[in-house]
UniProtKB/TrEMBL annotation:
Gene3D superfamilies: Tetratricopeptide repeat domain. GO terms for biological process: RNA modification. This is Pentatricopeptide repeat-containing protein. GO terms for molecular function: RNA binding. PPR repeats lie at residues 22-56, 57-91, 158-192. It comes from Rhododendron griersonianum.
Length: 199
């Protein structure tokens, strides 16, 4: 509760007072630090967890990867992702999603795409969407168009992907292709939701 509210000092005091910490208490503390942008403390808690002989689980790695993603710690994120194998843990879709987000935000678009294409599980629209957002952030329209096609294939009902690919075509001056995307949306019955405001 304290960690979610951002009162990490109080959360840490209670955590430190627990005599026998289980994986859940360690995970909550790692996640709390990561959620509030203190990746260094999240990593420090992970190291302490290792020394305490409590075995990290999938959620532990998800929490520490998420902390690395929010802080842009690419090298550390890769290291933790690789370390999962040491505990006989297989990354799931959420772990891959964190890594794609981390690599994409840092501009390693090709590496992020390679990771998605090498996944032993089928990528969902969310993973492609995360990479697509990174393409937009880093102004890589050509790459973004390729990624958007994968995103639409994985989640054809998501109108955001069509809008994004049309915008990418427009940014390159490819008006006809942008219009074709809009026409395809109409043909498939995919509609953009009307924006609204409470102001």
């Amino acid at each position: 509760m304290y960690a979610k509210c951002g009162q990490l000092d109080k959360s840490r005091k209670i955590f430190d007072a627990i005599k026998e910490k289980d994986a859940i208490s360690w995970n909550v503390m790692i996640s709390g630090y990561g959620m509030h942008g203190d990746a260094e403390s999240a990593i420090e808690i992970f190291q302490q967890m290792k020394q305490s002989n409590v075995r990290p689980n999938e959620l532990t790695f998800l929490a520490v990867l998420s902390a690395c993603t929010h802080a842009g710690l690419v090298r550390e994120g890769k290291c933790f992702f690789d370390r999962m194998r040491n505990y006989a843990l297989s990354p799931n879709l959420k772990h891959y999603s964190c890594m794609v987000d981390l690599l994409g935000r840092s501009g390693n678009l090709h590496e992020a795409e390679d990771l998605v294409l090498s996944m032993p599980i089928a990528p969902d629209g969310g993973i492609w969407g995360s990479l697509l957002s990174a393409c937009k952030i880093h102004n890589n329209a050509e790459f973004g168009i390729r990624v958007a096609k994968h995103a639409i294939e994985a989640d054809p009902e998501n109108e955001g992907y069509y809008v994004m690919i049309a915008d990418l075509y427009l940014s390159l001056g490819r008006w006809e292709e942008a219009e074709n995307v809009r026409a395809k949306m109409k043909e498939m019955g995919v509609r953009t939701r009307a924006g609204w405001s409470t102001v």
